[in-house]
Amino acid sequence: SKGKFLLFEKHSTITKFTILRLSADPHIQALRFVLFLGVYFLTLMKNLVMLLVISADSRFQVPMYFFLGQLSFLDICYFSVSVPKLLENLLSKKKAISVAGCMAHISFVSASEGVESFLFLAMAHDHYVDICHSLVFSQVMRNHLCVGLLLAQWGLGFLDDHINIFGAGSLEFCETHTVSYFSCELPSLFPLACSTNLTVLAWSYVTHSLGTVLLVFFSCARIVSTILSINSTTSKHKDFSACSSYLTVVS
């Protein structure tokens, strides 16, 4: 009993986690820093240009491009949360992150991923109405509905984030404090924990993963079924072309 008490007490003394090195060779570290920095700037530029073009050109003021603009914004958020700390660790001698910093990183990553998954659900609804109910598309997908879907996806994404961060905050950490990964994320903390809140994590998994995936899969199945039922080969090819990029990303 005393040994168990001491084991669970040790988590309170842990103030930081040690991050796994990508390489012990400083030259390789510098090379990877330049590589990741270049990819990061290219990602930022691509998404910023996408946002600028969508907002500047009136031809893109339609629901599909509205959601694509949100996807570009989320890409910027996700990479801006993950990459800077990775770049810092590539150059610093001590590969470490504080417990508070780790929890903040988990929170921002979880929020970005949660909002993005619900954004795919909103995009699935947009394509579903466009293909399956094309005659009433302009009446259904109005601006207020798009804004409502946007607010809903951010609200659900942050709700999912709170569930995940509550699960992370309930973990009891033991002696080991080395994260076997080059980034501090929730799955990487499980091997360090003496206990796991399985109920909270299971609920997060069901709402975040299965719930969204099943609804997106249902929309995609209806879209594909409707396209295949079209008699005109030209119309069928046109509809497939319009949805091909989205169906590829979802797949």
Task: Characterise the protein shown here.
- It is a single chain.
- By secondary structure, the chain is mainly alpha-helical.
- The protein has helices spanning 2-9, 26-56, 63-91, 99-132, 137-140, 143-169, 186-189, 198-228, 233-250, and strands spanning 16-19, 96-98, 172-173, 178-179, 193-195.
- The chain has one domain: Up-down Bundle (Rhopdopsin 7-helix transmembrane proteins), CATH 1.20.1070.10.
- It is built from nine helices and five strands, in the order H-E-H-H-E-H-H-H-E-E-H-E-H-H.
- 21% of the residues are buried.
Named at the architecture level, the CATH assignment is Up-down Bundle
Structural class: mainly alpha
Largest sheet: 3 strands, mixed
Helix content: over 70%
> How would you state the average pLDDT, rounded?
77
> Radius of gyration over alpha carbons?
22 Å
CATH superfamily: Rhodopsin 7-helix transmembrane proteins
Q: Output the number of helix runs.
A: 9
Write down the domain tally: 1
Strand portion? 5-15%
**Widest sheet: strand order?**
2-1-4
Given the C-alpha coordinates, what overall shape results?
Answer: globular
The counted number of beta strands is: 5
GO cellular component, one term: plasma membrane
InterPro entries: GPCR_Rhodpsn_7TM (IPR017452), Olfact_rcpt (IPR000725)
Organism: Sousa chinensis (Indo-pacific humpbacked dolphin)
Keywords: Cell membrane, G-protein coupled receptor, Membrane, Receptor, Transducer, Transmembrane, Transmembrane helix
